């Protein structure tokens, strides 16, 4: 049991020293969920994040050195790779499978459809979390369809099983939602689920903001995975900007004025006037003021001065 826990948390990227400290404090029989909580409380971070920060020293190489270009390519800073600009994807496997199975069957094909959709867009980091007991033989109260897909995704290092075990005939399941939110938060990625994770939002204020801003909901239409074009509402970013690390701002499109030539707002009008393209856009009141300020002819000014007493 101790070795299985060590292997599981090592796969998540935690150091063996931190894992051993936590197991010594909590005991060998501690649940994986409690061990994860203790690692978070200690401030332990996966080694993958630390390794991403360390290679930045490779940038301090003299110009013209080939090692600098190799370091940039190793870091993924080469502009030719478009996958670097896309956010990591973390999929709630149980939510997606039950949604595709109409909340009656755990449909593994729904997970495959979601993974294929993100692969076609160019995402390279895709992780799916599913409870470990889904590997067991399906029962009548929990039917599973296309269970072989889980084995294929596990071999591709896409699917990750959250730990579960049986104690005196009862299944003890770890809270897989915490794994999903934590990995997506650390990777600065996107959560794919129709769950709102309200309990985790109340648990951590940083997670609350992250879940509100990085949760991608979806629908299945005729075996087609379809996320919304506006994940954060009508006034939010587009789907492509939502899934990109560097969003592209759209060009400003001018809407024609509904009043047309009858508009009296002039340059204060916020709409587009094609007839004023080469004219100074002045309002009617401003045009009248400009005309009154025009000085009269010099001959008329002399006549007025002579007539005046």
List the main descriptive attributes of the protein structure presented here.
309 residues; five-stranded parallel beta sheet; Rossmann fold; 11 strands; 14 helices; elongated; two-stranded parallel ribbon; alpha/beta
Characterization of this structure:
The chain has 309 residues and is an alpha/beta fold. The protein has 3 domains: 1-42; 89-243, Rossmann fold (3-Layer(aba) Sandwich); 250-277, no CATH class. It contains 14 helices and 11 strands. The protein has helices at 2-11, 16-26, 32-42, 47-53, 66-75, 93-100, 108-121, 148-155, 176-187, 198-203, 205-214, 239-242, 284-292, 298-307, and strands spanning 89-92, 106-107, 126-131, 144-145, 159-162, 164-167, 170-173, 190-192, 215-216, 219-220, 225-226. The strands form 4 sheets. It has a 5-stranded parallel sheet, with helices on both faces. Strands 2-4 form a two-stranded parallel ribbon. α1 packs across α2 (16-26) and α2 (16-26) packs across α3. The longest helix has 14 residues, at 108-121. Keywords: Endonuclease, Hydrolase, Magnesium, Metal-binding, Nuclease, Zinc, Zinc-finger. A zinc finger (C3H1-type) spans 251-276. Residues 300-309 have a biased composition (Basic and acidic residues). Pfam families: RNase_Zc3h12a (PF11977), UBA_6 (PF18039).
């Amino acid at each position: 049991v101790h070795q299985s826990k060590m292997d599981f948390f090592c796969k998540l990227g935690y150091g063996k020293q931190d894992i051993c400290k936590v197991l010594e404090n909590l005991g060998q029989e501690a649940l994986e969920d409690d061990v994860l909580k203790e690692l978070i409380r200690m401030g332990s971070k996966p080694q993958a994040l630390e390794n991403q920060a360390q290679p930045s020293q490779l940038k301090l190489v003299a110009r013209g050195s080939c090692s600098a270009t190799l370091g940039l390519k190793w870091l993924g800073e080469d502009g030719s790779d478009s996958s670097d600009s896309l956010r990591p994807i973390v999929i709630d496997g149980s939510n997606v499978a039950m949604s595709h199975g109409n909340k009656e069957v755990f449909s593994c094909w729904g997970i495959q459809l979601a993974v294929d959709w993100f692969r076609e867009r160019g995402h390279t980091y895709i992780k799916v979390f599913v409870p470990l007991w889904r590997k067991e033989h399906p029962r009548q109260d929990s039917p599973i369809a296309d269970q072989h897909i889980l084995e294929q995704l596990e071999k591709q290092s896409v699917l990750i099983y959250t730990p579960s075990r049986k104690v005196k005939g009862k299944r003890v399941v770890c809270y897989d939602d915490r794994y999903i939110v934590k990995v997506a938060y650390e990777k600065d990625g996107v959560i794919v689920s129709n769950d709102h994770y309200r309990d985790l939002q109340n648990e951590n204020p940083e997670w609350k903001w992250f879940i509100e801003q990085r949760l991608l909901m979806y629908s299945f239409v005729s075996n087609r995975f379809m996320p919304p074009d506006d994940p954060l509402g009508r006034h939010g970013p587009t789907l492509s900007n939502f899934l990109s690390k560097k969003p592209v701002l759209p060009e400003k499109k001018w809407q024609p004025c509904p009043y047309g030539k009858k508009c009296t707002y002039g340059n204060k009008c916020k709409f587009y006037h094609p007839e004023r393209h080469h004219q100074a856009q002045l309002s009617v009141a401003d045009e009248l003021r400009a005309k009154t300020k025009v000085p009269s002819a010099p001959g008329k000014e002399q006549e007025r001065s002579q007539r005046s007493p």
